[in-house]
Amino acid sequence: MGKNNKIKYKVDQIQDHDEKAQAIDTNPESVERKTEEFIKMHDRLPLTRRDFLGAGIIQFGGFLALPPMLKVMGTGGMSKAADIVCSAAKSSELPALITLNLAGGAGLSANWMPLDQGLQPLASYSKMGWGVNPAVVTDFANKAPFYAGNPFLTALKAASLDAQAVMNTNFVGVAVRSQDDTNANRFDITGLAKAAGLTGTLLANLGTSNTPTGNNTQAAFLPPPSPLVVGRYEDVAGALRVSGSLSKIANRAPALFTTIERLNALQAQKYAEMNYGRQLEELVVCRSKDNTNLVSNPNAIATDPLSEPQIAAVWGLNNNTSRASRDYVFATLVYNALKGNAGSANLTMGGYDYHNGTRATGDARDADAGTVIGRILTSAYRLNKKVFIIVTSDGSVTSTESDSAGSPWGSDGGIRGSSFMLAMDPSGNSSAKSFQLGHYVAAQAADDKTLVGSSPERAAAAMFANYLSFGKRLDLFELTLPRVFTVVELDGIRVF
User: Fold this and answer.
1) DSSP assigned state of 24
2) % helix / strand / coil in the chain, to the nearest 5?
3) pLDDT at 94
4) How many CB atoms lie within 10 A of CB 395?
5) Across the beta sheet with 418-424, what order do the strands follow?
6) Looking only at Cα atoms, what is the longest distance across the chain?
7) Contact predicate 5/227, CB 8 Å
């Protein structure tokens, strides 16, 4: 039985003799007339393959079986099903959302420089690899502080081929403790963003890990749409292509889906007054329209980053690049999120459990993360798209205690955790009123008494609020996630 991630209905196997069957009568008036005749004869809508064949509506052996709608409508899951299947027909007005999880416990706070509650340096960073009184540099539009010579920022700027992309980016460090070496931290906000209205014209959510979120974290508050897990570019292309049994009648597929679209509309009208009637109409009609457009003009929508030379150059792609390489996969997810084809993109990078008694491994991994983020910022700038990037990890690291900078990483250190928010506006008109959310204490740890310091999930809620604020839609926060923060608290955590 042929299936397709984009085409939502099942297809019976088509026998060879079906190709010689009578041509499908797809005339809208004819379809409506025959359906109405069937209703009058049997006092019910055709719901099965036998019904349709008996009514003379579809004269071929392969039939796209509609869901058993009466059974579906009788369940409380109908609203959820409609929400998942019926992504909006147009791209969201919210900014592109891209999350990057550094699996293993990256020392994010050893790149950005966490400050105390008064935004002053700590007396010592001896357990964070930078000793006492480390050299400091400021960067990005809001002059965020970083340790001088840190590998993350150095690589990010080198990968940002357009310097203006960094100049138009605001950086905010989030001081939050998290569990070490686990995927249980509830950092993922893609479910919240979807509930607030972030949708893709083709796919709801893209990811690189085979998890419910598409990366190495758990959902915060609301589960995201099931991600399309991408291991090579063809995973995206294949999800948007008619395949299986329908490929045998490719030239007839547009007519077939036009017929199904019309039939679904008639069925939805019939059941409009029943429980969950509105959701049913969305479920059976909207995706048929998408399918009809898709099979009628499958090459109309650009999904391949190689198709745009300015983006291919950012990621170093050419015709000889493996489409299963990390650069091609990441470029594919980022490109489709920025273009609005996908609602969100969740990336995971492994190898960040690097407390091996050296600095070399950790520095190389942190530089790799900086390179990826620099490429994301440049891609968004070149496409003239606003983007909001969230960087998370499971825990952090602790260095061998030393008053000198450069001491090696010796153990896990989740109390020294942090996350990043980077918001890039190509126009340069967006600004952040701070570079830090929460703060560190003298013990060289995130203060667990702040609104975000002890809970990845509450930190995620705060980052979600800032995502909406960056998109000029903070009004959607209380509608999406009510009663998590008071009005005063919400104002206190909003930096955009």
Assistant:
1) P
2) 40, 15, 45
3) 95
4) 25
5) 228-229, 203-207, 342-349, 96-102, 387-393, 418-424, 169-175, 436-437
6) 89
7) no
pLDDT single digits (tens) 340-383 = 999 999 999 999 999 999 999 999 999 999 999 999 999 999 99
Integer Cα distance of 441 and 434 in angstroms: 18
- Which residue stretches of the chain have pLDDT < 50? 1-22, 24, 45-47, 49-50, 52-91, 242-250, 261, 264, 268, 271, 276-277, 280, 283-284, 287-288, 292-293, 295-297
The strand pair at 203-207 and 136-139 is best described as: unpaired
- Residue closest to 411 by CA, chosen among 431, 390, 395: 395
Question: How confident is the model at residue 305, as a pLDDT?
Answer: 97
* pLDDT value of position 204: 85
Output the CA angle 206-316-145, nearest 5 degrees. 75
Question: 464: Cβ–Cβ under 8 A, 6 or more apart, which residues?
Answer: 189, 192, 193, 196, 220, 477, 480, 481
Residue 143 to residue 268: CA distance in whole angstroms: 55
Domains of the chain with bracketed CATH: 10-89+243-296 (no CATH), 96-236+302-472 (3.40.720)
* 124 close to 444: Cβ distance less than 8 angstroms: yes
* Distances, alpha carbon 175 to alpha carbons 123, 188, 405, 455, in Å: 17, 16, 21, 10
- Decide: pTM greater than 0.85: no
Alpha-carbon separation of residue 169 from 139, 359, 428 (angstroms) = 9, 28, 8
| CA dihedral sign, ordered 411, 412, 414, 420 | positive
> What pLDDT, on a 0 to 100 scale, did the predictor assign at position 73?
38
Token pair of 241 as six digits: 């292509």
Which of 53, 65, 64, 46 shows the shortest CA–CA distance to 21?
Answer: 53
Query: For residue 41, what pLDDT is reported?
Result: 54
